[in-house]
Amino acid sequence: MKLLLTNDDGINAKGIYALAKELEKEHEVVIVAPDNQRSACGHSITITDPLFVKELKIDGIKSKAYSVSGTPADCVRIGIDKLVDGKIDMVLSGINNGFNLGTDVIYSGTVSAAIESSIYKIPSIAVSTEINDDIEKYSVPAKYASEILKILKDSYTKNDVVINVNVPLIPKENIKGIKVCNIGSKTYDFYFMEDTSENNDKRFYLKGALKESEEEDTDVYYIKRGYVTVTPLHYDLTNFKILDEVDKVFNK
Fold this sequence. Notes:
The chain is of the alpha/beta class and 252 residues long. 24% of the residues lie in helices and 29% in strands. The chain has one domain (2-183, 216-250): Survival protein SurE-like phosphatase/nucleotidase (Stationary-phase Survival Protein Sure Homolog, Chain: A). It has helices spanning 14-23, 72-83, 109-119, 139-153, 219-223, 243-250; strands at residues 2-6, 28-34, 53-56, 64-68, 90-97, 124-129, 162-167, 177-180, 186-196, 202-212, 227-233. The protein has a 9-stranded mixed sheet with strand order 3-4-2-1-5-6-7-11-8, with helices on both faces. Strands 9-10 form a two-stranded antiparallel sheet. The longest helix is centred in the middle third of the chain and has 15 residues, at 139-153.
């Protein structure tokens, strides 16, 4: 398969290195990733400024690689349009340094890159794991990404759906299996800490405590219990549950 790899942690991130190293064993891989950290940028794109693209060589990786002075969604767009020759079979985004569980997927540049691919009818997978700076810790998520790709490649017909994968940071032999599940609830008690700069300007730092739901059959629930979680996503934000109800309000 021909794969486009991207992320939101930047072209030099250990996660994308591990993913490329694993996938290029069996696939044709092209890496197109931001030139630096773009975490939590969501689905933003660059409109008024030009994008600067540099082809570079990543030590230990044989695949072509490009850095882009933009967001993860930019990387997918320019990768599809300009940088990858021929048909892309699938886009993989990650391995993100930190889970993308529950409502965090709304903010995630990793997931947004995968969603951008699906908008162009190219199947996509977003892969994330717990925060860790040890390159060896990414080997298990990389292997699961490869396994999940093999499972999906012959039966993946819904080419506008994103598969969001989260892998716990434990030895592979301790992982209990793969659970296909819903997005859970993951919110924060946000507040801002204020201080004053040397120019007497007010500045604020975002703080907050995490609040997680223990609702069963969700990604938040199963990741804590040692499972790899798999959740299909879609960019259509229509609330179909109340669509008819709202229609009746406007069309009495």
